[in-house]
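Instructor's aside before we start: the two examples that follow are unrelated to each other. I chose them only because their records fit on one page, so don't look for a connection. First example below.
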Amino acid sequence: MQAMVLAVVQGLTEFLPISSSGHLSIVSKLFFGSDAGASFTAVTQIGTELAVVIYFAGDIVRLVVTWFRGLVSAEVRRTQDYRLAWYVIVGSLPIGVLGFLFQDYIRGALRSLWITGAMLILFGILMGLAERFGAQRRGHDKLTMRDGVLMGSAQALALIPGVSRSGGTITAGLSLGLDRPTAVRFSFLLAIPAVFAAGVSEVSHVFEPSAHGVQPTGAQMIVATVVAGVVGYAVIAWLLRYVQKHSVYLFVWYRIVLGLVLFGLLGFGVIQP
């Protein structure tokens, strides 16, 4: 039951800019008495990223084919798809490098719920400011390498629970003048290499007796990953429709309220950090 609940939480929150790792940490400590752990989180994210691959299969195949063709064709190298493929590759590097260098902190000290609460509020405010003051005039065809690098750097901040990978990248995208649909779609594509790499690298750590967080069985891990993927697919479809006509203020206020509630629970000793 714990694996199922955490998988549903992962699927619901991975693509919304509200921090899936923060929600997993809060729910697992509040209802199950222990942190789910960074490794469990990373592996279940494989399921949600498979949902991205399925949903954007056409786009992904086109980008991959174009990238390989561009290696030998100057004409192809002038296309936006070829450049976009490079933006995804380069933008994935910061989270990979920082995740490797600071993996011990990511699994341990940074998972304090005091940090999670502070990041929920801080990055909620930053997202609200980006929504309010971002020009939102640039679409898919106006993406640049600068966008890839800066949004990739923002994605790396999501190694801290409470920041949110999608929240960081969407905030950066809006701040750079991208419109909401473009920022969200690029955020999804940008996550694929980094999340798959993190998930695969963390598989062995999930089952270590000395690891931080829960130690699920192989069967529990498989079920959790599949459930997270199915729920995540539905959330992708909903979010892409939502941002076409609505601002991100709903998520801004949700983050701030959740952060304040979390501080209250910690302050009164209802939940341990």
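Example two begins here.
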Amino acid sequence: MASLGIVREFLSEMSPIEGVAALMILVNVVLVALRSIWNYAFGIVGVAIYAIVFFHAKLYSDTLLQLFFLVVQVYGLWQWRRSQADAGEVVVERLTADARLGWLAGILVAIAGWGWLMHRFTDAALPWWDASVAMTSIAAQILMSVRKIENWWLWIVANILSIGLYAAKGLWITTGLYIVLLGISLWGLAGWNAARQRAGA
């Protein structure tokens, strides 16, 4: 049957290390949505493994992105612990309208610059698409670390871009992961909005 052949092909292309990385990131994002500080334990392991996966796929922007995430994960852990110590919970905040425009402009400039560098100086596959995922994700990770609700809007965009990119590269576990992460991002946005409303912010 054709459907069984597709399933066999899918399973034969699955990488065990990619599966472990996907599981770590899935748990990480669920815990972020729940505003649990334990998300960082899973996030650090997940991004370290994904750095290896993306390097072998020649997605160099995403490889460097994972290394950046390692640093931001440590910073975020410090920020979240401080908020928890001060308020008894991880407090959700919002950017001003001017700050949102500034972040958007910065992301677009970063995509243009990084995409050009990857296109000009490396053999990166899909450099502009990859750069869009990387730069949007960097902004989202920073905003998540400082507890800004806008991080979820950026993750939604990054997840949509990632689904197409990883499918194009045949990283099927990761494609599936980002479909799930898109759903979790929508859930996380709703949950963080509810937390702000409960706090009267």
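Residues 10-85+102-199 form one domain.
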